[in-house]
Structure formats: structure tokens, C-alpha cells
Amino acid sequence: MFSSFSALSVCGRGAARLAAVTLASGLAVGAALVAAGPAAAGTSPAQPQGGATATIGGLKTYGAAVVHSDEGDLEISAGLFEMSVEGGGMLQTYCVDIHNPTQKDAKYHETPWSGTSLGANDDSGRIRWILQNSYPQVNDLASLAKKAGVRGGLSEQDAAAGTQVAIWRYSDAVDVEAVDPEAEKLADHLEKNARDVAEPQASLTLDPPALSGHPGGLLGPVTVDTNAESATVTPPADAAARGVRIVGRDGKDATTVKDGSELFFLVPEDTADGSAELTVQASTTVPVGRAFASETRSQTQILAGSSESTVTATAGANWAKKGAAPALSATENCAAGGVDITAINEGDEAFTFELMDTEYSIAPGETRTVTVPLQEDQAYDFTITGPGGYEKRFTGVLDCRTQAAEASDAGESTQILTQPSPATIGSTSADVNLAATGSSGTTPAIAGVAIGLVVIGGAALVLVRRKQQR
């Protein structure tokens, strides 16, 4: 038996978590800092426009682990989560921020390591090695047990728990061990033998995600990067009415593409100033080791297994006959501690805008990336406008560090307070949705929105406090 608890997270980040930024910029339009909520429906997270989007369910296959700290020991569950993919498909994931809560039904996007805590972690490649060399990628448990020196064999629960524990040792640098001796032996084996492996390619991206130019020719190219054998192209909904076409380099309408294919927006010369967006969609398995980050502040996940899943990418074009013709995209940059906004101007006049009280001017034919600095856990809401009604909005929460790393740098430690509530562990068939383990419904407000939070192990009330001087 093991203890499961309802939970709230009060991790000592209040002011930063509640903060948000609105940047309204066009031709010399200023920026402001205001309070705001999480990403609203219909807005885009500041991540590359491509890959799988999924909703997290709960732990499916798991065992118990113990986290050791100066404040005492805590038993938590450790194992595989399942996520349902928009458009079809299922993902299996482990988490990489042990003290951070998982939000009920949080939406996740496939994300490069650079947009998560993995980007600044020298051991991220070792985590991917663990994923490639353990459960569920290695589903021959007898063979896995033999390699790990586990004489009694491994159950699926042992394999999942041992794998998660090994990952936490590299992702969070915490003192954690599996409760089951067989799972612990597997964790030790994986930790000892892990080697550095490169970050996997995205399942589907389009490069660049935004471009601009003049009507009367081809705008592009947009290059397809995918591990799928083929993908379908969907033109803008009103493309036919405006005469806009999506074509390949040969000028023929593009309906199917593959890795390396180039796409162009063909915009007739008499087309009014405007913009359009194409969509590319494929069915493929997402590469093991891809990170998944949430739109809010639910703990980062890393992919352990994928069914055939739907992946999608978009690219937009903006055109103008005269004047500035901007195109904008954004991505979180954890190394720089902010959001990179890339501005392209293929017009014949400069595109000028303001960010954080700084004015930028993008000359005709120029591409520039501006990094907007943010605090860890800071919610942001960027809206940048341009001539002719052009507008792009990017929202999200900067989540670049694990809680353990933040607490360590701040001279703080995490203290976890618990109240026992018996529960059975080890199920592989029941859906253990952590958001349904006894929460009273009274939860903290994040940016003005009440969200039910659940610690990854079903676990506890997490507090951050200053270490006592000894």
C-alpha cells in the first residue's frame, strides 16, 4: 500500500507566476506590463508551429518511489503517463520536474528541448538514452531484467517506476529511489550506463513558420521537416476566392508533401493586401525523447512511446503592394531566459515597433530576432500589430527550470507536507487520473483562473522555505 493525497502547490513563486506581459506593437506602438490569465482559446503558444498537441490523462503504469530531503522522506508514485493526441493517437510520457504539479487535462505541445528545462541540462542526452533503452521501448522485460541484473524479474510496474526514478536523477538532481528492490536495481543500472544521445528531430515542422512579400509572385519557400513518409497540405480556407494557391517549386498545386519538400504561396498581382495560412498534417510516430510543454504551468513531460499519431504544422504569409510587409513568429528561448520574436520584412518600407520600451526598426529585406526577457514562471501575452490589419498574438508561461534548481539557487529547499490516504498502486488497466484523488475543489488562482493542481505522485502540499542556518 502507498499513500495518495490531494494537493495544492504553493511553491513560493506567487508574484512571478501571476505576472503577465502584453506587448501591443505596430508602427511605433508601445508595450505594457499588465496582469493577465493563461492562454485564451484560439491563441498560439510561442513555440514552433508544428508537431503533436495532446491532453494529459493520468498515470497508467506505475510503482512507488521515495524522495529523500532534509525535511524528511516522501513516498510518491513513479511511472508512465498517457496523453491523448488531437486528431488521433496516444502518447506515453515520463515527467522531468519532480516537484512541479500536473494540471488536470492540461494541453501540451511538442516542444524543442531549448524551450524547456532540458535545454540547459547537460544530462538531457542521458535521459533520452534511458528512454531508448528501457520500458516501454524495451518491452521484453525478461531481457531488460537480465541486463539490469534483476534476478527476480521485472513487472511492468517495476520497469516504469525504475525508469522514472533514473530520469529524475538526471532531470532534477534529486535523491530519489524506487521502493521495490527490482525497480531500484533497474534505476541504478540505467543511471550508471546512460550515455549522451542527441535530441531527436521534430515529428513535423515548417521553416520558416512565417514569411512576407509582395503580391504578383511566389512567397517562400517553406520547407517541410518531418519523419512521416508523407503529409497532406490544406490551403487557406478562402484561398480560392482570393486566387491564392499553395504550390510546389514546379508551380503546380501542392496537395501532398514529404520531408524536404518546398511550398510556396502563389499570390496574384491584383490580390488586395492581406495574409493567409497553410496547414500540413501527417500521421506518424513521434520520436522518443521529444519534450512536451504545457500552455500553462503543468510539469514538463518527455516522450517514452507513441502510437501512430496526428501531427500538424502551420505557416503563414503576409503581403502588401507597398509599404512594410511584416511576418512574425515566436519561440521560447530558455538559454536567453525569454521569448524570441522573429520579425521578417519583405516590404519596401521599414517595419517599426516597440517591445519593452525599446523601439525596433526592421529594414526592407531584413530579418531580426528580438528576445523579450521574462522571469521564470511568468505568464506572457504578446500582441504585435502591423499595417493593413496584420496582427500576431503569442501566449504562454515561461517554464525553463525545475523547481529543485530554482530552490537551490535561491537558497531554499522544498518541504512536502502530507496526510495519509490509502490507495493501491501498480495498476496497468485502471486510469489513475491524479486530478480525481480527493481534491476538495479549493485551489489556488494562477493569473486569475482557478485550476486544480495535482502533484505527480498523487502527492502533497509542496512548500518552499528558506533553509535554516546551522
Label this structure with key terms.
disordered N terminus; mainly beta; disordered C terminus; six-stranded antiparallel beta barrel; elongated; six-stranded mixed beta sheet; 7 helices; 470 residues; 36 strands
Describe this structure in words.
It is a single chain. The chain has 470 residues and is mainly beta. 13% of the residues lie in helices and 43% in strands. The protein is built from 7 helices and 36 strands. Strands 6, 14, 16, 18, 20 and 23 form a 6-stranded mixed beta sheet that branches. Strands 7-8-9-22-21-11 form a 6-stranded antiparallel barrel. The protein has a 5-stranded mixed beta sheet with strand order 4-3-29-30-5. It starts with a strand and ends with a strand.
Q: Span between N and C termini?
A: 36 Å
Rounded mean pLDDT is 79
* Global shape: elongated
**Helicity range:** 10-25%
List the uncertain runs.
Answer: 1-42, 414-470
Report Rg: 24 Å
Q: In this structure, how is the largest beta sheet organized? A: 6 strands, mixed
Beta content: 35-45%
The helix-and-strand class reads: mainly beta
Secondary structure tally, helices: 7
Number of strands: 36
Secondary structure layout plus pairing:
Blueprint: E1 2-3, E2 9-10, H1 14-18, E3 19-25, E4 31-35, E5 44-45, E6 50-51, E7 53-69, E8 72-85, E9 90-95, E10 101-103, E11 107-111, H2 124-132, H3 141-148, H4 156-171, E12 175-178, H5 181-193, E13 204-207, E14 210-213, E15 217-226, E16 231-234, H6 239-242, E17 245-247, E18 256-257, E19 262-267, E20 274-284, E21 291-294, E22 301-306, E23 309-319, E24 326-333, E25 338-345, E26 351-355, E27 358-362, E28 366-373, E29 379-385, E30 391-397, H7 403-409, E31 412-417, E32 422-423, E33 445-446, E34 449-450, E35 453-455, E36 461-466
Parallel strand pairs: 2-36, 3-29, 5-30, 14-23
Antiparallel strand pairs: 1-32, 3-4, 6-23, 7-8, 7-11, 7-12, 8-9, 9-22, 10-35, 11-21, 13-15, 15-19, 16-18, 16-20, 17-19, 20-23, 21-22, 24-25, 25-28, 26-27, 29-30, 31-36, 33-34
